[in-house]
Amino acid sequence: MSLTDKISMLMARPGGDNVQKDDVPWWMRLAGRALGTVGSGIAIFLGLLNCMGIVLLQVSCLIAGIWQMLAGFIVIVCEAPCCCFFVDYVQVLSDRMETRPYWNKAVLYVGLALPPFFLCFLSMSTWFGSGLIFATGIVYGMMALGKKGSMDDMRTSAANLEAGLPPTTAPRANLVPNEQPTSFTGVPRT
Hints:
It comes from Plutella xylostella (Diamondback moth). This protein has helices at 3-11, 26-51, 59-79, 90-99, 102-119, 124-145, 151-163. By secondary structure, it is mostly helical. The chain has a domain at 24-145. Helix 3 packs parallel to helix 6 (124-145) and helix 5 (102-119) runs antiparallel to helix 6 (124-145). The protein is extended, with a radius of gyration of 22 Å.
């Protein structure tokens, strides 16, 4: 068993299949994929422009440009493996990323996009190139949150809040199915 298989076994949710949720609209999945593909291509090009900062002796902008090109390549491998068919095992990595939950992609893309901002803050190519990768992470984060409530549920909840009534249903917890409400018992007596 290889190291990557062991790591993917550790990252898998126990007792759950890693199939994407069907409650995400098709246009949002398409927007995430399109923004990731186009944005990573632009980030690679603008990262190359950032590397020209070495002419002005800006080493931090050179490092930010290299990081931005690497981040763009990783995103394009995950989102559009057909653009990188010349690299071995690209399809395997892309298939593995497709089975992961949406929040994994969101964390990866946001984490890849942030370091160039801190290295070369005043460069517009950093803001635009890494900003597109960051926006892709935000779209995947919104997909991980899922659908909002129906119009009737929101209207009922708003009416109860306006009237000062307690909520009719307890909030639903996705992480803990047996959640109990907390209460304040007062200050302990000494």
